[in-house]
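Please predict the structure of the following assembly.
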Amino acid sequence: MYGLVGRMTAVAGQRDALVAILLDGTDGMPGCHSYVVALDPGDPDTIWITEVWDGPESHRASLALPSVQAAIARARPLIRGMEQVAETTPVGGHGLVDVSA
Amino acid sequence: MYGLVGRMTAVAGQRDALVAILLDGTDGMPGCHSYVVALDPGDPDTIWITEVWDGPESHRASLALPSVQAAIARARPLIRGMEQVAETTPVGGHGLVDVSA
């Protein structure tokens, strides 16, 4: 598996709008075991995104999906910055959706 | 919801043993929507743990569960350090187990 921990910074005042796009545009992505969007309670502009994919190829391929492309186009003007905090190799746990089907 | 992103460092050579304890002792915790254990591919001693709970109370309560207490006792000698990278407020996504039942 392939995991990402990312920190996104929204343009001031646009975090809620950006979160709505992230939640809407990233549903049902092939190979995606987990995709969690979270607010940073200590910073009004910061969003944490934690992802688990079956491999880096699925993550890369997701960026070309029409639904994700549309979400990126809508989200771009609301994003001030994006930092990849960690790239990981998930080995198990709880809440990993079965994507073998 | 209540989320945590943590980075744990194992005693040298003990990461696999520590991961096995984490995966074994943390199954079926009440109020836990997601608990993912991941290796850091760039550091042989580092583990990333990302958690989503229905609230901080469930997370705190989990630490008192007999299964978790037993896991902590077994894990402690294998842990060199633990850093809380982020405390978050998850708002949605994919892979969040329903704990309302």
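The radius of gyration of chain B is 13 Å. The interface with chain A takes residues 1, 3, 5, 7, 19, 23, 26-29, 32-42, 48, 50, 52, 85-97 of chain B (CB under 8 Å).
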